[in-house]
Design a protein that fits this description.
6-stranded mixed β-sheet; RuvB-like helicase; 316 residues; 16% strand; alpha+beta; 11 helices; OB fold (Dihydrolipoamide Acetyltransferase, E2P); two-stranded parallel ribbon
Length: 316
């Protein structure tokens, strides 16, 4: 890494063949000349490298990265854009060893090695069935890298919502997977209290087998308090870009307390804002909320309406 002093490129006299050249780099402590091949010449031309630029050259890949413009360069006659990044000339050795860390999922490595054009499947998502031989070969290579301290495995996080819909075979697989050395952190969520395990007649807490519950740490949750409900509705209003009055926001909190549905209260924010726009008002007030509440029912009012007007509906 250093400041470019000069760039010289050469092409065969026949006009055919690859271009080669030399680049002179300097730091505050030294200056050196490097021979560059055709790939680096193409990278320099592509990046529009010129004298006075601070660049980094990766010798292993042949890529050239432009870091910015040297602040020590005389810019009296230079025309540069306002977005040009001025950085000081580097110090020390020109040739440096830099550690580059890439984060990649094991599944992506499996997909790349699963077929000849496997790298395309990482972007398309069409990985198909990955053979066990490929996974074993990748695992073997990863273990070699770990022993050489070239790689480190970081367990991920697997979130499973509505976990009660899984059947017994899925739970058995999770039991085995959780015992693995590199098992991810598994977070499961459900709104069931007691339910039959899917596909069986066994009844269990949350519809989850007891042996899996024994391996889990169960997080206790509590209902939202008035202050938390107020804060959630305020955040939702800001996210929707709705200007709402304080009295109206308090009314939404009371509606949530009456109906017990936070989703219904949040949906009324959008509806009230639509009503507000039709009246050319600047903020959502109490009248807008009352009209929205009268137009759209919550679950409890809908249930009472069905019972009261049962004779007016068609039943079979």
């Amino acid at each position: 890494m250093g400041e470019v002093v000069s760039i010289e490129t050469e092409r065969p006299t026949s006009g055919l063949g690859r271009r080669t050249g030399k680049v002179t780099l300097k730091t505050t402590d030294m200056e050196a000349v490097f021979d560059i091949g055709s790939k680096m010449v193409e990278s320099i031309i592509k990046e529009r490298i010129a004298a006075g630029d601070i660049i980094r050259i990766d010798k292993s890949t042949g890529t050239v990265e432009r870091l910015g413009r040297s602040s020590m360069r005389n810019r009296g006659y230079d025309a540069v854009s306002g977005s040009t990044n001025e950085i000081p000339c580097p110090s020390g050795e020109i040739e440096q060893h830099i550690e580059i860390v890439d984060t990649v999922a094991l599944h992506e490595i499996d997909a790349i090695n699963s077929r000849a054009q496997g790298y395309l499947t990482v972007f398309s998502g069409d990985t198909g069935e990955i053979k066990s031989e490929v996974r074993e070969a990748v695992d073997k290579k990863i273990n070699e890298w770990r022993e050489q301290e070239r790689a480190r495995i970081v367990p991920g996080v697997l979130f499973i919502d509505e976990v009660h819909v899984l059947d017994l075979e899925c739970f058995a697989f999770l039991n085995r997977a959780m015992e693995g050395e590199f098992a991810p952190i598994i977070v499961m969520a459900t709104n069931k209290d007691f339910a039959n395990i899917r596909g069986t007649s066994f009844r269990s807490a949350h519809g989850i087998p007891v042996d899996l519950l024994d391996r889990a740490l169960i997080v206790r949750t509590n209902p939202y308090g008035p202050e938390e409900v107020y804060e959630i509705l305020s955040i939702r209003a800001r996210a929707e870009g709705v200007q709402i009055e304080e009295e109206t926001l308090q009314g939404l909190c009371r509606i949530q307390g009456t109906t017990g549905s936070l989703r219904y209260a949040m949906q009324l924010i959008t509806v009230s804002d639509v009503i507000r726009s039709r009246t050319n008002a600047t903020t959502v007030n109490k009248e807008h909320l009352q009209k929205a509440y009268g137009l759209f029912m919550d679950v409890d009012r809908m249930r009472k309406s069905l019972v009261a007007d049962a004779s007016k509906f068609i039943s079979y």
